[in-house]
Amino acid sequence: xxxDFILKNNIRxxxxxxxxxxxxxxxxxxxxxxxxxxxxxxxxxxxxxLEEVEEKFDAGELIFDHILDSxxxxxxxWKGKHISVNxxxxxxxxGELFCFSSKHLHHGHQYVVKDKNGDDAVFEIPSEGKYxxxxxxxxxxxxxxxxxxxxxxxxxxxLLISCTLLIIVFLIVAKSYSKNxxxxxxxxxxxxxxxxxxxxxxxxxxxxxxxxEKYFPYLxxxxxxxxxxxxxxxxxxxxxxxxxxxxxSVTAVLALFTFCLTTFTGxxxxxxxxxxxxxxxxxxxxxxxxxxxxxxxxxxxKPVVLAIRLFANITAxxxxxxxxxxxxxxxxxxxxxxxxxxxxxxxxxxVFVDFLELLVAYVQAYVFTLxxxxxFGMAAKVEH
Amino acid sequence: MExxxxxxxxxxxxxxxxxxxxxxxxxxxxxxxxxxxxxxxxEINASLENAKRIKDEMDTVQEKAQQIITQTRExxxxxxxxxxxxxxxxxxxxxxxxxxxxNRIIESAKETIEHEKMAAVTExxxxxxxxxxxxxxxxxxxxxxxxxxxxxxxxxxxxxxEDKNKNA
Lengths: 384, 168
Prior knowledge:
The structure holds 2 protein chains of 2 kinds. Chain A is α+β, with helices and mostly antiparallel strands. In chain A, 60% of the residues lie in helices and 12% in strands. Chain A contains 11 helices and 10 strands. Chain A has helices spanning 2-25, 27-32, 39-42, 59-67, 154-179, 188-208, 212-234, 248-265, 268-275, 290-334, 336-380; strands at 48-52, 72-78, 81-86, 88-93, 96-101, 111-114, 120-124, 136-138, 144-145, 148-149. In chain A, helix 6 (188-208) packs across helix 7 (212-234) and helix 8 (248-265) packs antiparallel against helix 10 (290-334). The longest helix of chain A is centred in the last third of the chain and has 45 residues, at 290-334. Chain B is mainly alpha-helical. Chain B has one domain (7-167).
């Protein structure tokens, strides 16, 4: 009876893991499929490419290769060959959409396709200059033009995976709520529920007040989005480990959402506090609108600070962990003994920082959500 | 520099992805979760209130029960005391009566014994008298056969009486 139960539980857990794996693998066929010439198919194309790698170890390159975005997803280097997933490049240039695999652009190779007029469209990733590391179109006169680049880069790919995961997890949880009505929570539901209640009772309600329900879905989404991406970013294996919340564009969009919500849902009191701050002498407002200017600048700085805080915290954590790991190889190149000795210390330090990063992953999600809630609370305040 | 420069493509995809996630979760997941959490909280509150009410009721009932028990015990004690008292008095009375009876019986037994004794003594006296007379007769009859002896005897008797009178 008991074993039966355990078996059942394990099967359920297994199917859950399997379904999750299948979902994440949904991306893979599109990534690994062979090249096809038709343009709509090219959007999905990408393949594992083996290529030669230079001998010398460069810690800075390794770290920035991880921190920064790229057009392919480097998985590992095996016997001197890079194993990476080539992600699709999607660019919009001269009124036309071009999609092709990033494998064509390795090592400064040029990729030539026919555009709608039958002329050659040449693309390249320059290794130096203004557009270093970014896809550019080489015009007929030799000049470089940066097209609208909406390629599925490593960060975008990681983002799509984590967003899919987020949606799947929450739909499962929502389903188990409606299925498991009037029962104690279990499984994923029991994992998510304390966090949802925490966001509601410790972040949303105390800072926003009665009107918290209006902002609550957004706060939950932000919290879990950052939380998931922070944690997935700490997993060093494909398809996780992309530095998503450590990317300024990602955090900027999050901060922008918070800023827009604050600005557009702001009540009369919110704007009165900005443009006619109470309790301030009139001469600070009238001929020279000093206070209003300061307040407006403050409003604009808030989202910037939000974005930079999250980006810097997560990036710093990744850099420190990678730095410790790199130390093994730097010393290993000098002498095997030093590398061996360093590996013990480095692993201990990296594990320590990894634990610290687990804390930071949670704390940053909390801080971003808390500050958003505080801004919403200011915007939604009715009485004074 | 690339590190801190927002990238257009990423901004685009991030806005799209986050927007979709926000929309899907806010539409399909969070209302269900929040609704259920709220419902459960209400249920828990209602259950707790119910439990409190039931506990209060139980307390009053228990108090009542305790009161009844105490009352009953008091009554019981009183009854027992009464019974004991009655029992005590009754046993005293019966003991006294029994004693009296005993004494009476002993008294009457003594009386009867006395009577019997008297009767026995009287009878004994009578028999002794008879026996003495017979003995005397026998003694007399034997020794007074001869005249001389009879005369002697009479004379002696007379003499004794005369002595008695003289002495008197």
